[in-house]
Amino acid sequence: MIIILKQNINLRDKEYLRSFLEDKGFKVREIIGEAETIFGAVGNISIDLRQVEILSGVSRVIPISKPYKLASRELKKENTIVNIGRVKIGGNRIAVIAGPCAVESKEQMFKAAQAVRESGAVMLRGGAFKPRTSPYSFQGMGEEGLKILKDAGDSVGLPVVSEIVGTEYVDMMKDYVDVFQIGARNMQNFELLKAVGAIGMPVVLKRGLSATIEEWLMAAEYLMAHGSDNIILCERGIRTFETYTRNTLDLSAIPVVQKLSHLPIIVDPSHATGLRAKVPPMALAAIAAGADGLVVEVHPDPDNAMSDGPQSLYPEEFEKLMRDLQALSPVVGKEIEKIHENRPINVRTTDKASNIIDKNIAFQGVQGAYSEKAIHRYFGDDVIAVPQPEFIDVFETVLQGKASFGVIPVENSLAGTINENIDLLLRYPDIAVVGEYKLRIIHNLIGMPGAVLKDIRKVYSHPQGLAQCADFFEKHKEMKGIPFYDTAGAVEHLSDLKDPSCAAIAGEEAARVYGMNIIKESIETNPRNYTKFFILTRADRAEYEQANRAAFVFSTPDKPGALFSCLKVLADSGINMNKLESRPIQGKPWQYMFFLSVDIPEDSHAFENALDKLRNFSEDLRVLGKYKVD
Ligand code: PEP
Ligand code: MN
Predict the structure, then answer these.
(1) Active-site amino acid positions
(2) Which among 28, 134, 161, 501 would be 20 to 30 A from 329, CA to CA?
């Protein structure tokens, strides 16, 4: 059962409730969610729910209808994010685990580790105990293999995952692996599930060869009931009548599981297909279907692999797949998970004074704004997004050292440049651009809980939000768009209005933050709707190593061909321009500044030389920032 606690429950009542349930034989889990704290009580005991409902501090008691309890979405509404050191799996990330089927030698593993790390994998795989169909096939290197796997992972800074095949290995393996894998053949080895669950470490739980989704979730329940909360489900294909591929990849399991469970789900296209050429298309399809990540077999020399060579990617193929995933990620509104070292890499972290406020990142708007989402996508979940009333306050907060970075929108793919922010960049020479982030914008129609589409008459949003949903308003002439200062602010306003005929257009986060409902998802006219954000910091903190993009401004003398001569310098130096915008110069009517963003060529001297030349043809050239884009 799920016991929803009153917000003001005191510690004594909470502890009484816990021991009351435990005395009756329940296992109790406390789950602290965004909106409420709950106790999940599971066990094979029947009890009259009213006995719990009357206890002090209890708000409501709801029975869980599914046979799996701890794994069920009924118990926990929010997605579980599994933390493995610096790596996170779940939420808005695409985490890619890669490596060979089996550990074969030190040389093979170190080569594989290097290759997959370079291409962007966040975890290294390698089997040391191989559950092979034939007793005569290579069975794995055992503990010796685990040592190699761990050393190879350490050599490139990747956590490692390896399969466990028997309870007797739990103690030995826990010192070598960061994540246990329970293989398809062992999904219903209940003794193994109990023993691995009791260790409390993260587990990749593969779907059994012929397991139903319910059986699979029940296996996860075994792990959770015995003490592990961090389960990553892995769809790896199931047995069907089809024999062309090794298994049949059940992609529909992804959305099904996501509805039933809060646990992250990843896909193994290698074992699902058994054929190298089929791995990349199915990997992309899995991500398109909503998977939280992939496990891909990659071998430095697949032709001589001791197991699963025909389905293992060559390192170059894996690199290509990662690039394709990069292109796909904004479409599904996710970010490829990376090993977060000290992002952004081009900002000094040794600046002592700033360490205190390093976690504060300023943005304009209220909680739930798209800028806030961009902050967490770019910096991760551990930073504090600090709302500011106006864009200028973002600049001031960063300048005064109250936030270490600021995040501002600079351009929308449909509505164009946000000129106010370009002007602010010109006005604040002590602020530098140190990064950029592109976020896919999905607008939703959001209303009061219980509000329905046909009753909506007034729709509040930022003018850009309203404009980007023009087709929706065309179809719903009964609705009137009302401009508001920002999108998330409009949702906050709704929660004050409490009027079921009013709605707002904003992102899903805003609906969640203000306890509102999404009436209609994704109502933007054009799904190719992206906003580019600039990451700002104080110019004296910015460092420009490894930069591959630059933003700068200059003005030109008032004479024929002035702009042409400047652009010719860039063209002659082979510098690709991604943006050119003219802005009126304040106080000088009819004179213009030009704002540019360009790719810095590999030979950065060519870029510096070009800038020097440019200074001869232009006036007031100022570099706003150099930074790295992926
Ligand atoms: C493996 O990942 O190496 C493996 C044997 O997978 P599965 O259990 O899915 O067959
Ligand atoms: Mn394999």
Answers:
(1) 531, 533
(2) 161
